[in-house]
């Protein structure tokens, strides 16, 4: 079975920075038509200009996906550019520190809107487009939706209450949407990851050596993932190689979420 996504059209949100950018770049390199989406228009222009100069089939779209009109405009923009939508990667995520005991802290509500509801609304709209563009009497797969989640969804981090809750909800959304869209031949999966060597993490590690030591100590594979290792998992789920995989949350964390903290402390 082929891992190819050549010729397919993908929308990747959160594509101006970090893991989202790595995923979008990898899809362009794999021969897909890719729409880079983010609120940071300057960064989008900077990142896509080089790819366009190399004749890469890329476009960029800036907007706030919490707004329903933005989602409508994004889908119209993508179809106008590439005629169809085959892959959606919901990679736009926000992390905020929460105070679980502060009843005036609205971070849970904000992160549910950003990390869950925008992904849900965009997935619903993209799925409708995928169904609409289906060829009559065809039994071929119609599309793949991939959500980026986190191992925080299954671990207790009180200071990341809003983020953890939004990721847990995103995982459940993934499973529910997978069942709902399976009869329409659209697959929905997620990739949950732990620490990835992003620019922000590099900055933290340069300032706090103890963070690196703590991460490595809790990770059986003994290292921090590269963004490409997350993008590889996403490409697998986007391709026909995963044609019988749906409703799954694939974990890319080097085994970190498997470890009992008491075991780590004892060693």
Keywords:
NAD(P)-bd_dom_sf, globular, oxidoreductase, 7-alpha-hydroxysteroid dehydrogenase, EC 1.1.1.159, alpha/beta, Rossmann fold, KR_dom, about 270 residues
What does the model show?
A seven-stranded parallel beta sheet has the order 3-2-1-4-5-6-7, sandwiched between helices. The protein has a single domain (9-196, 226-258), classed as NAD(P)-binding Rossmann-like Domain (Rossmann fold), CATH 3.40.50. The termini are far apart. The model has no long low-confidence stretch (mean pLDDT 89). The protein is an alpha/beta fold and 267 residues long. The chain is built from nine helices and seven strands, in the order βαβαβαβαβαβαααβα. GO terms for molecular function: cholate 7-alpha-dehydrogenase (NAD+) activity. Pfam families: adh_short_C2 (PF13561). Belongs to the short-chain dehydrogenases/reductases (SDR) family.
Summary?
With 267 residues, this protein is of the alpha/beta class. The chain contains nine helices and seven strands; from the N terminus they run βαβαβαβαβαβαααβα.
The low-pLDDT segments are: none
Query: What is the count of distinct domains?
Result: 1
Please estimate the helix content: 40-55%
CATH-derived architecture? 3-Layer(aba) Sandwich
Report the top-level CATH class. Alpha Beta
Globular, elongated, flat, extended or rod-shaped: what is the shape?
Answer: globular
Question: Care to count the β-strands?
Answer: 7
CATH topology: Rossmann fold
Strand content: 5-15%
The run of helices and strands is EHEHEHEHEHEHHHEH
Task: Report the radius of gyration as a whole number of Å.
Answer: 18 Å
Q: Could you describe the largest sheet, including whether it forms a barrel?
A: 7 strands, parallel
Mean pLDDT: 89
What would you call the structural class? Answer: alpha/beta
Write the CATH homologous superfamily: NAD(P)-binding Rossmann-like Domain
Number of helices: 9
InterPro entries: KR_dom (IPR057326), NAD(P)-bd_dom_sf (IPR036291), SDR_fam (IPR002347)
Pfam families: adh_short_C2
Protein name: 7-alpha-hydroxysteroid dehydrogenase
Enzyme class: oxidoreductase
């Amino acid at each position: 079975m082929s891992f190819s996504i050549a010729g397919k059209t993908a929308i990747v949100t959160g594509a101006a920075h970090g893991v989202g950018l790595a995923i979008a770049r990898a899809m362009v390199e794999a021969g897909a038509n890719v729409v880079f989406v983010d609120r940071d228009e300057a960064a989008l222009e900077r990142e896509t200009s080089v790819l366009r100069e190399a004749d890469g089939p890329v476009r960029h779209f800036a907007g706030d996906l919490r707004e329903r009109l933005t989602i409508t405009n994004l889908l119209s923009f993508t179809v106008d550019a590439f005629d169809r939508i085959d892959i959606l990667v919901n990679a736009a995520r926000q992390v905020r520190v929460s105070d679980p005991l502060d009843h005036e802290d609205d971070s849970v509500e904000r992160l549910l809107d950003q990390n869950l509801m925008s992904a849900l609304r965009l997935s619903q709209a993209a799925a409708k487009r995928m169904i609409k563009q289906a060829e009559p009497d065809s039994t071929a797969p119609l599309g793949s939706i991939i959500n980026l989640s986190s191992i925080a969804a299954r671990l207790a981090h009180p200071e990341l209450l809003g983020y953890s809750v939004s990721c847990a909800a995103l995982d459940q959304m993934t499973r529910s949407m997978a069942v709902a869209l399976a009869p329409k031949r659209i697959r929905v999966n997620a990739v949950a990851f732990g620490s990835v060597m992003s620019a922000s993490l590099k900055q933290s590690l340069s300032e706090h050596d103890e963070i690196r030591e703590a991460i490595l100590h809790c990770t059986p594979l003994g290292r921090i993932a590269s963004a490409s290792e997350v993008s590889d998992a996403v490409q697998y789920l986007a391709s026909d190689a995963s044609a019988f995989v749906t409703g799954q949350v694939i974990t890319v964390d080097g085994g970190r979420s498997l470890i009992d903290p008491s075991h780590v402390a004892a060693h």
